[in-house]
Amino acid sequence: MLTLDVALMSEPGGRPYNEDAAGHWRSDTQLCCVLADGAGGHGGGDLASRWAVQDFISRLAAAPVKEAADLGELVRQANAALIGQRLPNSPSADMHSTLVCLVIDIAERRARWAHAGDSRLYWFRQARLLSRTRDHSVVQSLLDAGLLSGGDVNKHPRRSELSSALGVAPELFEVASDSGGPIEAGDVFLLCTDGLWEYVDEATLEATLGAATDPQGWLDTLGQRVMAAAAHKSSHDNFSALTIWARAA
User: Fold this and answer.
1) Buried (b) or exposed (e) across 180-205, using 16+ Cβ within 10 A?
2) What's the pLDDT at 152?
3) Which residues of the chain have pLDDT under 70?
4) DSSP characters for 146-192?
5) pTM over 0.85
6) What does DSSP say about strands 99-105 and 30-39: parallel, antiparallel, or unpaired?
7) CA–CA separation, 36 vs 89, rounded Å?
């Protein structure tokens, strides 16, 4: 049996309000973690992200799933439901949100995840990156086509343009899911919004994780790195992260 420790950080950065949201739910058999980054303007973004997190967790809690494809279907249902929550001439009229979710089967020691947009999931083993989600974004498409190198992603002028997110018409909506694999004691997962990964590269994630002694301390360090790297930008984005550390019971 594994013990799973969870820590959360969500900060407004240089913005007047926070459009990120995160949450987690645990049963005797599963741990579910969800993170979202909303958009929509005039308050619509924070509505979208909070609603997306709450909707996904409530759906999973009502009918727990075991397969990654089923998680993807829950994300599709959350997308359709978010569209249904829009009200003309209100802050919710054009709301959108990224979403990334992780579900860990505690007894089977298995991780599964799904996502839409550019909020990411990282999986580390022995403080080394084992896996990462692929963004649904214009920049990721350029990378896939060989038109951009990995080192240019975080500073590309179109890095915030998404090809999929909750709020997109169902026929155009793209969601990715992964069956992950078996978890070992010492494994670490990180869910984060682009406001964090834009300023903290993979080498820094590995180095700070290797030096960290506890989950919240690691997130605090990452938050400090973001604030230092974004100090020149007074209106830098909200940044949020949720981490799960697996240890032997």
Assistant:
1) beebeeebbbbbbbbbbbbbbbeeeb
2) 64
3) 41-43, 149-154
4) TSS-GGGGGG-TTTT-BS--BTB-TTT---EEEEEEE--TT-EEEEE
5) yes
6) antiparallel
7) 24
Report the domain count for the chain. 1
Cβ–Cβ under 8 Å, residues 192 and 216: no
User: According to the model, what pLDDT value does residue 141 have?
Assistant: 83
245: CB partners within 8 A, 6+ apart: 4, 5, 7, 187, 188, 214, 215
Distance CA 154, CA 51 (A): 28
The answer to whether the CB of 190 falls within 8 A of the CB of 205 is: yes
Structure tokens at 173: 């909506």
Kindly compute the dihedral angle of the four CA atoms of residues 53, 238, 111, 114, in this order, to the nearest 10 degrees.
60
CA angle 217, 223, 228 (to 5 degrees): 130
Residues in the chain: 249
Q: In the numeric block, which tokens belong to residue 194?
A: 């682009």
pLDDT at 162: 92
pLDDT for 154: 67
Please name the residue that has the structure tokens 């682009």. Answer: 194
* CATH code of the domain containing 210: 3.60.40.10
Q: What is the model's pLDDT at position 41? A: 63
Both ends of the chain: CA-CA distance in Å?
A: 6
Domain with 139 in it: 2-248
Q: What was the pLDDT predicted at 110?
A: 95
Inter-CA distances, 167 with 48, 71, 121, 132, 201, Å:
9, 17, 21, 24, 28
CB-based contact 175:114 (threshold 8 Å): yes
